[in-house]
Amino acid sequence: MTRARWCAARAVALVAAVAMLLGCVPAMGDVHPDRPVRKSRIAAPQARPNIVLVLMDDFSMDLLQTMKGAGRLARRAATYQHFVVDSLCCVSRASLMTGQYPHQTGVRTNTASLVPGAGPMGGWSAFRAYGNEQRSVNVRLQAAGYTTGFVGKYLNQYEYLPGVKPLPPLPAGWSQFNALFGSAYDGWGFDSTGVSGGRLQARHHPIPPATASRATRDASYAGQVVEDYALDFIRAHRSDAAPYFLEVAPYAPHNRTNPQGAYPGDPVFPPAFRDRAGGKKAQGNCGLVSCRSLTTKDLPGFGDRRADNAPRTLAGRKARAWNTVPTLGAARATAHLRNRAQMVQSIDRTLRRILKAVDEDTVVVLTSDNGFHLGQLGMGMGKGTAYDTDIRVPLLIAGPGIAPGARAEMTSNLDLAPTFEELAGLQPAAFRSGTSLVPTFTDPTLRTRDHVFVEHTTDTAGDDPDLAFTGGELKRIPSYVAVRSRDALLVRLDLDPDLRRTRYAYEFYSYAKRGWEKRNVVHQARYAAQVAALRAKLGELDACAATAGDTAVSERCRRITQ
Questions:
Q1: Closest CA to 330 of 318, 341, 338
Q2: For labeling, which of 71, 92, 117, 171 is most exposed (least CB within 10 Å)?
Q3: Residue 463: predicted pLDDT
Q4: CA-based nearest residue to 244, from 52, 515, 381, 445
Q5: What pLDDT is attached to residue 497?
Q6: Regarding beta strands 244-249 and 147-152, do their DSSP bridges make them parallel or antiparallel, or are they unpaired?
């Protein structure tokens, strides 16, 4: 298939493409699973294509409307109703790369948080201790002949502090590894890695002086460094006989983590200087929309009372409310939203340049590790909940043989690892819980699953970057498991902080009338059948919780998403 035919297929207006992704038109677009449709004339996906995964950090769906590059990608991409297995960076990333639930990876939090008598609970320590390196999809792709590259944010607590903490080991399965360490959250002043002779080497990226020009400062911005590494990798390998797999993981639009920014007056969400007010646009660069037009109206559920979201027992009694931090005010929410939109423009430029740099035999994937909330449902600022603000993220997949348009399938980030394996001509590993999306590339109507699951564990430690500027909200969110269907959400919270005991309470929301969680109605009789059905689904997940590590996933456990 030629690039011209591929790019022209099913072309639609840019605004319409973005609107569809945001849910401004029906989530399934023109897909009607029960209605006969004309079969796609798109050929089967190219055998062993190059694969580029762009994994954003804390990206919320309200930002998609600002991205020109994402809109261009959407015109030629398969788009999905997509969710993450946990709205926490390290947990989600570990699950994405392994195709496994947190109970399988053992990565349940961002930090090690050693439990007496047990091993680490999260972070790089848990990822490595429980064998996730070898189960990661890049290891299998490299063994199958792919050149593998990583650029950007890796896993929490994979760190290097010159003179304090030595370079960590090179993770298995990467031919080239350009990780940016955690100080890149602030935008400037960080170290990165490279591989030479099979050994990891460090490179320092100093903060340019405040008197330097905007262009000079932006050349050292974390987003620009990620882009430079990514394009260098693509240019170096696009003419190779062997295919390549590249993960590009920018830090944007995650907030900075230090009390003071790299430069005086840096906002909590620090954009490149060219995108700030007074840069190339007087009010700042928010891409396809004006920054002034972004308000709390772009945050569904903002201003809603939080009292009606309080957990309840199955008997209907109110349980302890966890949402007790001060609600984020409208002025701060608006300022943060605009700064986040400005941060995202660096990703969008990188995406557009990647699309220009790759050849026609490349599959490009755009998604995020989790979402983010800014005051919706009376909350503060952050993530970690099972609400759509935090677990629903975009998933766009474009490439040779992939028919553009909305898909009927409901998907999880567990599905990406087996998808990459099948694209590479491999049988997905038996220990993966996810399911390959390749069959949906040529059949938009395919619908085999109606549920996704979320597993969240509380107990974040003080050095968790996701705690910064959140007022402690993340620590207040209890551990829970949740099941999201196409039209409802059931959350089973464990309100007992002792890991040896449980005290369950529930939240249930119907999406029949609105696309956000207006009121917990778990106790209302008219929803009893739905609640019972979703509780049964959680029971099925519980019955599969003993499957972990390299253990093959049974067919029974694979069917729980149906």
A1: 338
A2: 117
A3: 65
A4: 52
A5: 78
A6: parallel
